[in-house]
Design brief:
- InterPro entries: Gly-zipper_YMGG (IPR027367).
- Pfam families: Gly-zipper_YMGG.
- This protein folds into 2 domains: 80 residues, no CATH class; 31 residues, no CATH class.
- Helix content is 60%, strand content 8%.
- Strands 1-2-3 form a 3-stranded antiparallel sheet, with no helix packed on it.
- Helix 1 packs antiparallel against helix 2 and helix 2 runs antiparallel to helix 3.
Length: 115
């Protein structure tokens, strides 16, 4: 692994770990780090031996996919928070969840993560 690859990974991890905002930034940072690592390995072993180019492409692709996933999680959380007076249902484990009106999705009660 080259010095450039290590620097890209370090900066990506630092930026992804420092955010206190939503899932978009966290998942983009994590996706970029995983993508950079995978791209460096693939570029070095399968490509023409250019780990730096593979890491760059992997970081861009991973960051984009991570941001899309984070946006989806943020939208889902907002959707669950916007349900007014939910009808609580108890599952077999004793946890409560409620349906989102007009959809086939459910959310956990008491500020738990959505299913």
């Amino acid at each position: 692994m080259t010095n450039a690859t290590i620097k890209i990974l370090a900066v990506t991890l630092l930026l992804g770990g420092c955010t206190t905002t939503g899932n978009v930034e966290r998942n983009a940072g994590g996706g970029a780090a995983i993508g950079a690592l995978a791209g460096a390995v693939l570029g070095n072993n399968l490509g023409n031996g250019d780990a730096k180019k593979g890491a760059t492409i992997g970081a861009l692709a991973g960051g984009a996919l991570g941001a899309v996933r984070g946006y989806s999680l943020d939208q889902r959380r907002a959707e669950c928070q916007n349900v007014r007076n939910p009808e609580l249902i108890r599952d077999q484990s004793g946890a409560f969840y409620y349906p989102v009106p007009g959809t086939d999705r459910t959310c956990w009660a008491k500020d738990q993560s959505p299913r």
